[in-house]
Amino acid sequence: xxxxxxxxxxVVDLTRIFSGPICGxxxxxxxxxxxxxxxPSGDLTRPVPPVDDDGIGPTFSHMxxxxxxxxxxxxxxxxxxxxxxxxxxxxxxxxxxxxxxMARYGLSYEELSARNQRLVFCSITGFGQTGPWxxxxxxxxxxxxxxxxxxxxxxxxxxxxxQEIHQHGDLxxxxxxxSAVLAAxxxxxxxxxxxxxxxxxxxxxxxxxxxxxxxxxxYEGPREFDTWNYAIVHTADGQAVSLVGNPxxxxxxxxxxxxxxPSGCPENPTHEEAVAILQELAAGYxxxxxxxxxxxxxxxxxxxxxxxxxxxxxxxxxxxxLIAEIRPGLPVPAKxxxxxxxxxxxxxxxxxxxxxxxxxxADDLGMDDEEIDKLIALGAVLAVD
Length: 385
Hints:
The protein is α/β, with parallel strands linked by helices. It has helices spanning 19-29, 58-64, 79-88, 101-104, 109-115, 140-146, 149-157, 168-191, 201-207, 212-216, 247-257, 271-282, 288-295, 308-312, 315-320, 357-364, 369-378, and strands at 10-13, 33-38, 68-72, 92-95, 120-125, 196-200, 231-234, 240-243, 302-304, 323-327, 330-333, 381-382. The strands form three sheets. The protein has a seven-stranded mixed beta sheet with strand order 6-5-4-1-2-3-12, sandwiched between helices. A three-stranded antiparallel beta sheet has the order 7-8-9. A two-stranded antiparallel sheet has the order 10-11. Helix 2 (58-64) links the parallel strand 2 and strand 3 (68-72).
């Protein structure tokens, strides 16, 4: 088996919840040795149910699979020095504290890079390291509210605002952080020096919004790729099917494709009229397979609306290795993509809190049992067998 593309890269991951942990997870899937530094209280996703007897559940595992785990209380005597020593030997450090917190512990970029000039120091916050909003609280639902995510969805749908289901603000920031880290590592190959990366959740939400350009230009006319208007209909067995394309513009074509008479279509139908006509035709098909088979050869895509579990149970998912069981009964997404000449994918392991503390301190920092036991007695670290 070939090595991962980041084999030999060491990452110190001080992040919590979603934005930083998913960045660390991707780097681990790419072959990096990621050491998660977790406080004694644990990451806030660790107790999210359901959890097994070791206190490990699917939410925490999705974000942190494949990482080694060391439990450190940064407030305790000697603890910041341990993290600094890990950073001395690292290529990348990830953190998503508010600006100034790392400096309070003597772990700022300036302090750590003075010791390790090659360190790539990735900071993820809501509004960035600089500017008048840098110290504001920032959680993904707040970012959705302030970065236009909720407002745009409500306006374009003509509906009341609703909060997002997914943590887009966190996840966009985390995934774009991966790109920033890889770019910085590549640049380091030419310059020999690391740098600080300043990732702002609000910026990543604006950047990743495909409708941003329209809003910023003041455009108020009809929009292409208006997926919020696409029709969802039901076949006779009750299965929901998505008909891809604006139903008002494509009504005659869809009607003809589904066996109706396009000459009877109203000239300028409302959205509701168009969907009602298509629903009546869709109800004439016993199953979604019958409907999708009819339009399969036409430029009118249709897809059954299914769940994550539905997709994971398909032959396609099995062939691609979509899901990996990293503990008995604990499946997680296996990899973000495949590579032709490198191994990419999850290491089938999720660590308990402090499971690797002794090994990291001994193997990575060269400490003996007496030194480690003293740190445990001081409360600087927690270790489990």
